[in-house]
Amino acid sequence: MKDDKNRAIAYFKLKDIEARQISKKKSGKKPDLELYIDNSLFGICEIKSIVDYEFIGEHSDPTNNKIQNKIHEASKQFSAYNADHKVPNILLLAIIYLTQGHFYAIL
Q1: 32: nearest Cα among 95, 90, 87
Q2: Quick count: other Cβ atoms within 10 Å of Cβ 33?
Q3: Of 18, 45, 57, 84, which has fewest CB within 10 angstroms of its CB?
């Protein structure tokens, strides 16, 4: 979700970390962001969103399976983009839930 990516970028900015989106023009699986401090790459970040109906298990797939699937997806993206682990891979889970007609997100 684009909002989750924007929230993550804003969070990293608060920590003096520049989060740059990885070009979608590059082919293959890839994570969402490259993270820089003082113009030096120090990490790769993938953001996975879990919406409330997935998280609380309203579908037939239990919550732990949803989270496990998101981790597995991210792992494939990290392996394709940063296979030699030159920098750390960071997985950010964004949990979105609806309460009293308002959406809330936890990063």
Answers
A1: 90
A2: 22
A3: 84
How confident is the model over 43-52, as pLDDT tens digits? 999 999 877 5
The one-character DSSP state at 100 is T
Query: Where in the sequence is the domain holding 72, given as residue range(s)?
Result: 2-106
The beta-strand segments (E) located in the chain are 18-21, 33-37, 40-51, 89-99, 102-106
What's the one-letter identity of residue 37?
A: I
Residue type (1 letter), 56: I
Report field, pTM of the whole predicted structure over 0.70 = yes
Amino acid letter at 20?
A: R
- Report the alpha-carbon angle 86-78-18, nearest 5: 65
3-class secondary structure, 24: coil
Please give the tally of structural domains in the chain: 1
If you ran DSSP here, which 8-state letter would residue 87 be given?
A: S
